[in-house]
Fold:
Amino acid sequence: MNRSCFAAALAAAAMVASPFSVRAADAAKSPSASAPSPKQLARGRYLLTVGSCNDCHTAEFGPRDGKVPEKDWLLGSGSLGFSGPWGTTYAPNLRLTLSKLTEAQWVSFAKNLKTRPPMPWFNLNHWSASDLRAFYQYVKSLGPVGQPAQAYLPPDRAPKPPFIQWPAPPK
Structure:
Protein backbone atom coordinates (compact mmCIF):
# COMPACT_ATOMS: atom_id res chain seq x y z
CA MET A 1 0.00 0.00 0.00
CA ASN A 2 1.37 3.40 -0.95
CA ARG A 3 1.03 5.63 2.08
CA SER A 4 2.29 8.96 0.74
CA CYS A 5 -1.13 10.53 0.84
CA PHE A 6 -1.84 9.20 4.31
CA ALA A 7 1.29 10.88 5.64
CA ALA A 8 0.46 14.15 4.00
CA ALA A 9 -2.95 14.10 5.51
CA LEU A 10 -1.74 13.29 9.00
CA ALA A 11 0.72 16.10 8.94
CA ALA A 12 -1.76 18.45 7.37
CA ALA A 13 -4.26 17.64 10.10
CA ALA A 14 -1.69 18.51 12.74
CA MET A 15 -0.93 21.75 10.96
CA VAL A 16 -4.58 22.70 10.58
CA ALA A 17 -5.24 22.01 14.24
CA SER A 18 -2.84 24.79 15.20
CA PRO A 19 -3.68 28.47 14.81
CA PHE A 20 -2.86 29.44 11.27
CA SER A 21 -3.54 32.49 9.18
CA VAL A 22 -4.06 32.30 5.45
CA ARG A 23 -2.46 35.17 3.60
CA ALA A 24 -3.79 36.48 0.33
CA ALA A 25 -0.21 37.17 -0.76
CA ASP A 26 0.52 33.41 -0.80
CA ALA A 27 -2.41 32.81 -3.11
CA ALA A 28 -1.29 35.60 -5.40
CA LYS A 29 2.20 34.04 -5.71
CA SER A 30 0.74 30.66 -6.60
CA PRO A 31 1.21 29.60 -10.23
CA SER A 32 -2.34 28.19 -10.17
CA ALA A 33 -4.03 31.18 -8.53
CA SER A 34 -6.44 31.26 -11.49
CA ALA A 35 -8.91 28.49 -12.26
CA PRO A 36 -7.18 25.12 -12.77
CA SER A 37 -7.07 23.69 -16.27
CA PRO A 38 -8.72 20.36 -17.13
CA LYS A 39 -5.20 18.97 -17.70
CA GLN A 40 -4.10 20.03 -14.21
CA LEU A 41 -7.23 18.51 -12.63
CA ALA A 42 -6.67 15.26 -14.55
CA ARG A 43 -3.07 15.17 -13.32
CA GLY A 44 -4.22 15.70 -9.72
CA ARG A 45 -6.75 12.88 -10.03
CA TYR A 46 -4.10 10.61 -11.54
CA LEU A 47 -1.69 11.34 -8.67
CA LEU A 48 -4.41 10.62 -6.12
CA THR A 49 -5.06 7.28 -7.84
CA VAL A 50 -1.47 6.09 -8.25
CA GLY A 51 -0.58 7.45 -4.82
CA SER A 52 -3.33 5.24 -3.35
CA CYS A 53 -4.61 8.18 -1.31
CA ASN A 54 -8.15 6.80 -1.25
CA ASP A 55 -6.93 3.60 0.39
CA CYS A 56 -6.59 5.44 3.69
CA HIS A 57 -8.34 8.79 3.22
CA THR A 58 -11.67 7.48 1.92
CA ALA A 59 -13.83 5.44 4.29
CA GLU A 60 -14.61 1.91 3.08
CA PHE A 61 -12.58 2.31 -0.12
CA GLY A 62 -10.76 -1.03 0.18
CA PRO A 63 -13.66 -3.15 1.42
CA ARG A 64 -15.79 -1.78 -1.44
CA ASP A 65 -13.13 -2.64 -4.05
CA GLY A 66 -12.67 1.04 -4.80
CA LYS A 67 -16.31 1.47 -5.74
CA VAL A 68 -16.89 4.62 -3.71
CA PRO A 69 -18.43 7.59 -5.55
CA GLU A 70 -15.93 10.36 -6.28
CA LYS A 71 -18.14 12.76 -4.32
CA ASP A 72 -17.15 10.79 -1.18
CA TRP A 73 -13.39 10.69 -1.79
CA LEU A 74 -10.84 12.03 0.70
CA LEU A 75 -13.26 12.78 3.54
CA GLY A 76 -11.09 10.81 6.00
CA SER A 77 -10.73 7.21 7.11
CA GLY A 78 -14.01 7.14 8.99
CA SER A 79 -13.72 4.93 12.05
CA LEU A 80 -10.69 2.95 10.80
CA GLY A 81 -7.54 3.64 12.81
CA PHE A 82 -3.91 2.64 12.34
CA SER A 83 -2.48 1.57 15.68
CA GLY A 84 1.14 0.96 16.61
CA PRO A 85 3.85 1.96 19.07
CA TRP A 86 3.18 5.63 18.21
CA GLY A 87 -0.49 5.41 19.23
CA THR A 88 -3.44 5.37 16.83
CA THR A 89 -3.73 7.63 13.85
CA TYR A 90 -6.78 8.22 11.65
CA ALA A 91 -6.37 9.34 8.06
CA PRO A 92 -7.45 12.96 8.01
CA ASN A 93 -10.06 14.54 5.80
CA LEU A 94 -7.83 15.96 3.08
CA ARG A 95 -10.58 18.16 1.68
CA LEU A 96 -10.91 19.93 5.01
CA THR A 97 -7.15 20.13 5.49
CA LEU A 98 -6.46 21.63 2.08
CA SER A 99 -9.41 24.03 2.40
CA LYS A 100 -7.48 25.77 5.18
CA LEU A 101 -4.27 26.16 3.19
CA THR A 102 -3.35 28.21 0.18
CA GLU A 103 -1.79 26.33 -2.68
CA ALA A 104 1.64 27.77 -1.81
CA GLN A 105 1.24 26.77 1.84
CA TRP A 106 0.27 23.22 0.79
CA VAL A 107 3.35 22.87 -1.44
CA SER A 108 5.66 24.04 1.34
CA PHE A 109 3.91 21.87 3.91
CA ALA A 110 4.05 18.71 1.77
CA LYS A 111 7.71 19.28 0.90
CA ASN A 112 8.65 19.53 4.60
CA LEU A 113 6.25 17.00 6.11
CA LYS A 114 7.38 14.57 8.81
CA THR A 115 4.67 12.69 10.69
CA ARG A 116 3.61 9.45 12.38
CA PRO A 117 3.25 6.09 10.68
CA PRO A 118 1.87 4.67 8.61
CA MET A 119 2.04 7.73 6.38
CA PRO A 120 5.12 7.58 4.14
CA TRP A 121 5.74 11.33 4.31
CA PHE A 122 9.22 10.72 2.87
CA ASN A 123 7.58 9.86 -0.48
CA LEU A 124 5.40 12.95 -0.54
CA ASN A 125 8.47 15.09 0.17
CA HIS A 126 9.75 14.10 -3.30
CA TRP A 127 6.67 15.14 -5.31
CA SER A 128 7.37 18.04 -7.65
CA ALA A 129 5.82 21.42 -6.87
CA SER A 130 3.71 21.18 -10.03
CA ASP A 131 2.39 17.76 -8.98
CA LEU A 132 1.57 19.05 -5.51
CA ARG A 133 -0.27 22.00 -7.08
CA ALA A 134 -2.24 19.64 -9.36
CA PHE A 135 -3.16 17.45 -6.39
CA TYR A 136 -4.24 20.52 -4.41
CA GLN A 137 -6.45 21.80 -7.23
CA TYR A 138 -8.05 18.40 -7.77
CA VAL A 139 -8.84 17.96 -4.06
CA LYS A 140 -10.29 21.48 -3.93
CA SER A 141 -12.53 20.59 -6.90
CA LEU A 142 -14.16 17.62 -5.15
CA GLY A 143 -16.84 19.63 -3.38
CA PRO A 144 -17.97 20.13 0.24
CA VAL A 145 -15.15 19.72 2.76
CA GLY A 146 -17.03 17.58 5.30
CA GLN A 147 -16.15 17.01 8.95
CA PRO A 148 -12.80 16.48 10.71
CA ALA A 149 -11.50 12.94 11.07
CA GLN A 150 -11.11 11.34 14.47
CA ALA A 151 -8.28 12.71 16.58
CA TYR A 152 -4.99 10.90 17.16
CA LEU A 153 -4.88 8.66 20.23
CA PRO A 154 -1.63 8.45 22.24
CA PRO A 155 -0.08 5.03 22.93
CA ASP A 156 -1.66 4.80 26.41
CA ARG A 157 -5.21 4.99 24.97
CA ALA A 158 -6.72 1.90 23.38
CA PRO A 159 -8.60 2.51 20.13
CA LYS A 160 -12.09 1.21 19.50
CA PRO A 161 -12.42 -1.21 16.59
CA PRO A 162 -11.98 -1.17 13.71
CA PHE A 163 -8.26 -0.56 13.56
CA ILE A 164 -5.26 -2.05 11.84
CA GLN A 165 -2.57 -3.14 14.29
CA TRP A 166 0.83 -2.12 12.98
CA PRO A 167 3.80 -4.24 14.10
CA ALA A 168 6.50 -2.80 16.31
CA PRO A 169 9.70 -1.98 14.43
CA PRO A 170 12.51 -4.57 14.65
CA LYS A 171 15.01 -4.05 17.42
Summary: The chain has one domain: 4-19+31-165. The helical segments are 4-17, 24-29, 38-50, 53-57, 94-99, 103-112, 121-124, 129-141.
